[in-house]
Amino acid sequence: MKTIAFLGLGHMGLPMAANLVKAGYAVRGYDLAEACRAAAKEAGIPVAANSAEAVNAVDVVITMLPKGEHVVSAYGDLIGKISAGTLLIDCSTVDMASALKAHELAASAGCPSVDAPVSGGTGGAAAGTLTFMCGGEAEAFSAAKPLLEAMGKKIVHCGRGGNGQAAKICNNMILGISMIAVSEAFVLGEKLGLSHQALFDVASTSSGQCWSLTTYCPVPGPVPTSPANKDYQPGFAAALMLKDLKLSQEAANGADASTPLGAAAAALYESFVDDGQGGRDFSAIVEMLRGSRA
Ligand code: NAD
After folding, report:
1. Spatial separation of the C-alpha atoms in residues 244 and 238, rounded to whole Å
2. Which residues does the UniProt record annotate as the domain 6-phosphogluconate dehydrogenase NADP-binding (predicted)?
């Protein structure tokens, strides 16, 4: 069985590493934060004293870090500490330039690498039902797949290095825009005297149907499991949605792609987060649009 170093034991990394342990892999976890190391030990994940000890003689290094700068810096530190052939898998959501830089650093050390950002949130991480969007050479992807299967239920090879991040950025741009669209429709419906349930019953079986409506409905009632029924506790925090929308705008500017609705969604989430709402679920933006908050 492969030995895996898991760097970054935060909200996502801890439950993901726990699922690798459950699947029988020899895991050595490490996080810069003492509190995360303690929580990981508590959850039964073997924890190394430092990152050098974590990556010593492992077959695979998985990273689940906040941003691109953390991933590039962690990869820079790894070089020289790992042997050629060690498989590097980055599951963080990062900007395209950092993703490509990480692949370049891996290649310079003779290591196969995969960018494998996830969707599914902390619930999916705990349940082992994440979706992984992967970019990298076919051989690197094949080597990574069984490990990702221990943490997720859908593993998609999106093409060359960086394409996993590209897929994640594009998907979450759809999500941010569609949540605002659904929220605006409920706010307009309220003004027109339409009940939430009536609009839901029509739109969920008509051409307005989408995930933001039928799984994650931003008003309480129609979908009992949506965060709207729990005072918008996340779920998927608005600050993370803003992070992803900014990444999509950065990518669009870099690629000269026209994404006017993506830009508008980023601006709306920015004012929501600036108003101190970043820790709430991203579907709470309906309150700002309604004018009932902000
Ligand atoms: P988090 O902040 O809870 O965890 C990141 C951890 O990385 C922190 O504990 C930090 O101390 C640690 N860290 C930073 N640099 C390190 C280093 N060099 N070595 C070891 N540890 C280091 O963040 P999270 O919510 O777990 O998210 C992680 C990534 O997953 C982010 O890129 C995020 O955008 C993405 N993501 C998060 C969610 C979610 O719902 N939380 C969903 C999908 C994707």
Report:
1. 10
2. 3-159
**pTM confidence score:** 0.94
pLDDT for 17-34, tens place per residue?
Answer: 999 999 999 999 999 999
Phi-psi domain of 193 (left: phi exceeds 0; alpha: psi -120 through 50; beta: other): left
Q: Which residues of the chain have pLDDT under 50?
A: 294
The set of catalytic residues is: 168
CA 92 to ligand 1 center in whole angstroms: 7
In angstroms, the Cα distances linking 72 to 9, 204, 245 are: 17, 42, 21
What is 177-208 written as a DSSP string? Answer: HHHHHHHHHHHHHHHTT--HHHHHHHHTTSTT
Total H helices, total E strands in the chain: 13, 8
Dist. CA 236–CA 208, nearest whole Å: 22
- Name 282's Cβ contacts closer than 8 Å, sequence gap at least 6: 176, 179, 234, 235, 236, 237, 238, 240, 241, 269
- Name the residue with tokens 């029509």: 202
- What six digits make up the tokens of 42? 């508590």
